[in-house]
Amino acid sequence: MFNLPQALKRLVIGRAMRSEELGETLLPKRLALPIFASDPLSSVAYATGEILLVLTVGGTAFLYLTPWVAAGVIGLMAVVVMSYRQVVHAYPSGGGSYEVVSRNLGANSGLVVAASLLVDYVMTVAVSVASGVDNIISAFGSLAEHRVALAVGFVALLTAMNLRGVRESGRAFAAPTYLFIGGILLMVVTGLVRLAFGDNPQAPTAALGVAALDGKDSLQGLGLLMLGLRAFASGCTALTGVEAISNGVPAFRAPKSRNAAATMAVMGIVAVVMFAGVTLLALTSHVHYVEDACRLTGLAGDCHSYTQQTVIAQLAATVFGGSDTILFYFIQAVTALVLILAANTAFNGFPLLASILAQHRYLPRQMHTRGDRLAFSNGIIALAVVAGGLLWFYQADVTSLIHLYILGVFTSFTLSQIGMVRHWNRALATETDAAVRASARRSRLINGLGAVTTALVLVIVLITKFTQGAWLAVVAALLLWLTMRGIRRHYDTVAAELAVEDVAAESSRPRRVHAVVLVSKLHKPTLRALGYAEAFRPDTVEAVTVDVEPEATAELRAAWEGSGLDVPLRVLASPFREITKPVVAHVRELKADRPGDAVAVFIPEYVVGRWWENLLHNQSALWLKSRLLFTPGVMVISVPWQLTSANRADRPARRAPGAVRRGEP
Amino acid sequence: MFNLPQALKRLVIGRAMRSEELGETLLPKRLALPIFASDPLSSVAYATGEILLVLTVGGTAFLYLTPWVAAGVIGLMAVVVMSYRQVVHAYPSGGGSYEVVSRNLGANSGLVVAASLLVDYVMTVAVSVASGVDNIISAFGSLAEHRVALAVGFVALLTAMNLRGVRESGRAFAAPTYLFIGGILLMVVTGLVRLAFGDNPQAPTAALGVAALDGKDSLQGLGLLMLGLRAFASGCTALTGVEAISNGVPAFRAPKSRNAAATMAVMGIVAVVMFAGVTLLALTSHVHYVEDACRLTGLAGDCHSYTQQTVIAQLAATVFGGSDTILFYFIQAVTALVLILAANTAFNGFPLLASILAQHRYLPRQMHTRGDRLAFSNGIIALAVVAGGLLWFYQADVTSLIHLYILGVFTSFTLSQIGMVRHWNRALATETDAAVRASARRSRLINGLGAVTTALVLVIVLITKFTQGAWLAVVAALLLWLTMRGIRRHYDTVAAELAVEDVAAESSRPRRVHAVVLVSKLHKPTLRALGYAEAFRPDTVEAVTVDVEPEATAELRAAWEGSGLDVPLRVLASPFREITKPVVAHVRELKADRPGDAVAVFIPEYVVGRWWENLLHNQSALWLKSRLLFTPGVMVISVPWQLTSANRADRPARRAPGAVRRGEP
């Protein structure tokens, strides 16, 4: 028979996969690049814009700083990529920064990294989706009013795609990423060629003036330095996601480490070329991009209804000759697509990290269990909910979201590079082979440079971004850190409480078992419960009812006496017309009179097939059961009575194992 | 030890009461009047205003209709009160209109009445509270912006008071109701005496003009008739709640019927005198009261920021010499208080009716169970939630809410009077005693008159109010009616399915019992579950684990083999890394191989004391259990392991019965 919810689930999630299929989902480099590198590559779409936003506070006076800021970002990118290539080789198990730091700097530091990364994965989804929607709106201005709905819709779409599993994601994402790389490079090359031939096309906003913020038009000394540093901190968004490959090494085909490191190098080079090219074009074509459109002078209409095009959109329109050309729409389409899909980096990384944390008992065990599609469904859903909430709260505004973003990235960069330095120190302490020692020394030098550089950037980001929203990311990471420590402490306490030292000594069997069968009416479920209770051959059996309504009780008593049942019926008084308390009190009394024995309470339960039927049945049974379990020496036995409607809900579990795999509904 | 939640519950709800105390909570007439009559009496506060609202559509031109409309309402009130006195005598069990109609016109008609009454109880709460807040704002204009918050706050307060139980409600409500009656009568008498001495004080709004609605200033013929009928329909709000006494007869002291009928007569006379007096004063003092303040001409300030005083407030200011006199504040205070408390009529009636309906299996059984304070907690809470929602949705606007109101009242009035006519017809068919026959004939005449009159009003209300919001009440009642029929059909089907004809023939005991103990680790809860399973002496015992993580499974297998346990451990393969499906499949296979036997699945469960700990434990156990219960012949045994924290949550149930009564926390 056709089962609509199941069919829908299969349609969205795809067929279930066996554990052995895990091998088949491993990624070749050409698929791994788009999956793991879509985040750092796509940040080309907003990093230049974020630098320009900061530098235009003094009108166009400080745009001359742009090349220096961009050079700083590119240098940093090179250092970080080189550093993480060391991580990939040294720790191929995919814990990434979390593993590096936990092993080398201790569990608490590792947990700091984990908390930062979890927050940053969420921010990656939010920022990438928001920027993607921005680029769609740059092409289709009339969609501006649906910004938030579009953003949340894309998060929902990504969630569904990721619940389908790793490999399919890789295929779905490969084409757009490669088209994006190709498109941006085509745009950069076209622009540079036109420039080389003396043709310097100007951006649509080049003719607009920019009003300086009060007193910001003549910064000098420290003020100028701060401005440059703020622009640099904003430009560092280009580095977000670089560490994703180091967290995803196990998803690569063998030789895993070498393939991952090679992919990382390719990604770094491509990212640098694209970022440099876009920034250069933005300067030569005089793109003017400000935080508040009302600071633009010379606008034709009302500034409040004016939607600024993104930097990429302005460049595409400039280089390809207008915002109605096919190539303009192509660039916007692939940019938007790659940004939306960049969020996928986080959808790959977050659940993997959450699962590792759950394995280490820092998160609830549910996070550790894989869903039936090899993806870690719970983690995916948690990520989608939080990111969607942020997009809704910040109205999908890229700049607001970016303030919350890069702090965590650089926290984990810095800690993991420090951890790597300690890693090489340890290796060098025992290693004797000269060639290996030389290699380790070189690696230590790279990671040392990485540690110093990223620590410096972390300080810059903290100083320039904290009051603009980064504090929220700090608070979120701190709360996560405390929660994870709390969960671990809880699991540790419980494990200690439950540990068995000597099985023989700690095993015990109750001397006798007393069965109590709860009865409300004399009907089939009651007879079944009585039959099951007697089948166990307990030492005593009694039926118990609670006298809530005297008439009903009298009726039951009469029916019982007329029935010929040999089990005695005990009526419990209930002065407060409650069911739970008298039963619990009676059971505790039984137990107290017979230490060393066990009391088994048989509760007839209705099994129904429709959710609302549960509202009409079993409410007292559920509550009663939860109270009875508090008494040591008492067990609760649910004796189900399947109502006809139960067949409706029973189908999924009734199918043979493997049916799902064969695509049966 | 001190238990804050329990202590708070006791503070708000009061101590629990025994069933035998029910007798003590029965009401003498002097307490029954304020409880059941606060609704019809308090409607004096808005009925006159609603008539004036309608009649001012043509400026002040049609105010001359007011006495005629008021006379119609008064006549109707007399007929309805007389009719319901017959109901109280004939049906003293408190089902009121529902019982009368069910018995005489059949179950489906009875259910129509029940649905109408449930909707009207909700509306009573909403309208009374909204009007009460209106009167508070008439005295303290600055509270106007907190209208909705005040209204919802009062609903919450009433809910808490009613959860404390019947008698205390009576005491809390007696003083305000009597003060309200006294205050209004004092105001009417003072006004009439001043009038008699030739002193005719004018209302604050008497000097303001009223602009007619377009084309409404010269109505004639049918238009004039419709206006009069609309005003009459609005004035009929004065009759809401008259039936409350007939639903509450069991709460009276013996002789119940006679006391209830006497109370009803007193209520009718008081209501008529107050309504007539207020309407008379409103006419002589020229109160101008309109739906939209911007239709008042001659206002000093902006009409949008002008808050109209209620009719009662204007009269109090007029008669007692200004809206800063002590008597003005006294009238406003008692009016507001009695209106808020009028909602209490519904808090008395709704849960009682819901409980009767639950007893007849038209509503879930939970509604039938009394809370631990003799009040029907579930019904009270349902009522409060819906009424609060309406107040929020309609921004606590009295007139909007009133459109939804009286339709249901007159549906049940009409049906119950028709039912009473049939009741007397039946009585007359068998009765031979001449005196009794004469009395029955007289009663039949009264109820016949009532039926005709209320049916006429029902038609008027339908015509004049349907498009203004009454349709919503019709839809709500219809949905309720369908839901209740559905619930009854469900319970009937289930009862038929479960009925036992021959206990001996239908009793059966499984031949053998096979125990399956679910194991994840070898720890204390596992050992306890094994011990309990063996204590039952089942025919076979096996331990079962699911191979989700191969390392964990290998570890468990090694520990098991080293432990010396004589129960075999079976490892179930789980290609999809799921726990539920392999276990369910295994249990079904066991069961299928052994028809006539029973399978007992022992699941170790953690009992924890903090709600969030449940998120960290038992998730798979819960899900597994719900799936296992679908298989006939399988029972599920929860073997609890009480973690240390469980003690926290165990206190309430651990106390001896009666402790609550002694006020122990």
UniProtKB/TrEMBL annotation, chains A, B:
What the entry lists under Pfam families is as follows:
AA_permease_2
Its cellular-component GO annotations read:
membrane
Tell me the membrane topology, using the record's own terms: Multi-pass membrane protein
What residue ranges are annotated as transmembrane?
61-84, 105-128, 148-166, 178-198, 218-239, 260-283, 326-353, 374-394, 400-424, 445-463, 469-487
Where does the record place it?
Membrane
Which InterPro entries does its entry note? AA/rel_permease1, APC_K+_Transporter
Mainly resides where?
membrane
Name of the protein described by the UniProt record: DNA-binding protein
Source organism (scientific name): Kitasatospora cheerisanensis KCTC 2395
